[in-house]
Amino acid sequence: MSTAADSNQVSAATWWRQAAVYQIYPRSFSDSNGDGLGDIKGITAKVPYLKSLGIDAVWLSPFYPSALADGGYDVDDYRNVDPKLGTLEDFDEMASALHAAGIKLIADIVPNHSSDRHEWFREALASPKGSAARDRYIFRDGKGPNGEFPPSDWDSVFGGPAWERITEPDGTPGQWYMHIFAKEQPDLNWANREVRDDFLKTLRFWSDRGVDGFRVDVAHALTKDLTEPMLSKVELTLEGAGFDGFEDGSHPFWDRDEVHEIYAEWREVFNEYDPPRTAVAEAWVHASRRARYASSEGLGQAFNFDLLQADFDASQFRRIIAENLTLAEESGASSTWVLSNHDVVRHATRYGLPNGLGRHCLQWFREGGTAKDVNTELGLRRARAASLLMLALPGSAYLYQGEELGLQEVVDLPAASRQDPWFVRSNGTDVGRDGCRVPLPWTSEGSSFGFGAGASHLPQPEWFSAYAAATQEEQTGSTLALYRKALRLRRNLHTEEQLKWVDGAGAAVLHFVRPNGWHSVTNFGTEPVGLPAGTVILSSSALVEGKLPADTTAWII
Ligand code: GLC
After folding, report:
1. Closest to 428 (Cα-Cα) out of 444, 416, 440
2. Which end of the chain has fewer beta carbons closer than 10 Å to its terminal beta carbon, N or C?
3. How far apart (Å, rounded) are the C-alpha atoms in residues 249 and 443?
4. What are phi and psi of 500, to 5 degrees?
């Protein structure tokens, strides 16, 4: 069989195509100064850990100055580091340490909205209606005799209206501004040239500092058509609109065709660099429209969130994999695979819930599902199997911090410690996303399990101790050991972006082989199954009498 040492070397310009990218949620990764918040120096200190894990790149969720109204996705200043997390010098030091370890750096960029503390927004509030300062955001007069009703009845993603009324500088009730997310996240006006130019400046700013790529937050929301009359939310729903917009691009703010004009300009900036900077779109759009974001004239890659919405189920996995490989071929990009991120319930927990909950799992917790209902053992076993399957697929794999420890969601955080605007804006009826954002356990004992010298900003449960990285370092067969071995093998087994399905082992088994003879077989069923001839190089659980047991993946060459 051929390996990376042969003809199929990863070129400098296409490193991203099959990269294993590790997402760091900075506030919850490692705290160097004991203030309870993870920080940049904390990340730098863990570069040896990241190197030993064997990832190709780190994606850093927002680290910009922020009041943390939405975990940092409310940015005060796009070209700086949050003083709570460090300084620009700390950032440079971290980037150099990562690069010296052979790890690329992807920065999260949040173009749809700034925070309400951004200097532009403060200027807009202090300036009169119709001013240039207001035009950088989306201000409209209200409806009703005194403008007392919002310009439309749309809801924000986090609940409550998508418009907020301001008080004018003279103290009178004034215009309304649009915010698709929290009210602390006013939407920028992408029809304004100054906004566009400023983001080009930001892309160059970080690219010049050595950032290798960008993860583009809600990439499908930037352009809007708010011509009157605006459709009501009922009309939009009746026409079938969800968070992914309409398949013809005619939704007033999700996934409009004009958004790609912006990314064509971004691409020109990316291509000023050698190697070109990369980007991946967070765009919850119809599968048929994903290729536009992933085009080489646009961002170059787009997340597919299909696996993270699926059950642990062979036919769902097979359909999703086949569909996305076809889409990737259409766009010329490689596919992306994600099982967990900072917005969803960790997959070790999802898979320990009754099948069928798949995409509705967060909803289920919102409606009263509790920790007691989670079969953590089954969840972890399946998570290990799914991760191994994902890591054998052609395309890039995005891993979320803590999944390499098999970490479970903290589903029973006390209400008083929850921070997510989803929780806050729903008055506690939506549990929100804090459960996957609890700081990592590095050691089995000590203050905040080695996260930092003080208490962590979200409380860690006692059972975190058992998942500590340091404990798993010592254990053969630990989830950390499994990820390390899988990532190292994956690198050496680098091959063309294709797979061939091998049928015959029954509907509950997914078996595919990559062009170099690397087989991955997953048993989603309940009975052990035979394995193809060859050497088993890795399995997510122990084989039973040479057979592949339930909820297990094996790699064979
Ligand atoms: C994206 C982020 C999410 C954030 C939202 C608003 O979906 O992943 O965490 O709340 O955008 O910026």
Report:
1. 416
2. N
3. 49
4. -125, 130
Pocket-testing residue among 28, 179, 214, 218, ligand 1, by greatest number of atoms within 8 A of Cβ = 218
Residue 119: C-alpha distances to residues 69, 126, 275 (Å): 16, 11, 33
**Which sign, positive or negative, has the C-alpha torsion 13, 17, 21, 25?**
positive
Nearest one of 358, 367, 433 to 400, comparing CA atoms: 433
- What phi and psi, each to the nearest 5 degrees, are found at residue 499? -145, 160
Whether 512 lines ligand 1, by a CB cut-off of 6 Å, is no
Query: How many whole angstroms separate alpha carbon 436 and alpha carbon 410?
Result: 7
How many angstroms separate the alpha carbon of residue 217 from the centre of ligand 1? 6
With contact defined as beta carbons under 8 Å apart, do 352 and 548 qualify? no
Amino acid making up residue 481: A
Dist CA 41 CA 508 (whole Å)? 46
Run of H or E residues at 207: helix 193-208
Alpha carbon distance 531, 534 (integer Å) = 9
Give the residue, by CA position, lying nearest to ligand 1 atom 4: 73
552 forms beta bridges with 523
Classify residue 279 by its DSSP letter: E
Q: Rounded to the nearest whole angstrom, what is the distance from the C-alpha of residue 431 to the centroid of ligand 1?
A: 16
pLDDT at position 9 is 57
State percent of the chain over pLDDT 90: 89
Q: What is the mean pLDDT of residues 374-383?
A: 96
Pocket of ligand 1 contains residue 420 by CB under 6 Å: no
pLDDT in tens, 388-426: 999 999 999 999 999 999 999 999 899 999 999 998 888
Residue 441 · residue 449 · CB < 8 Å: yes
Structure-block tokens of residue 556:
């064979």
Locus of tokens 């919002």: 150
Question: Is cis: bond before 394, omega within 30 of 0?
Answer: no
CB 64 within 8 A of CB 78: yes
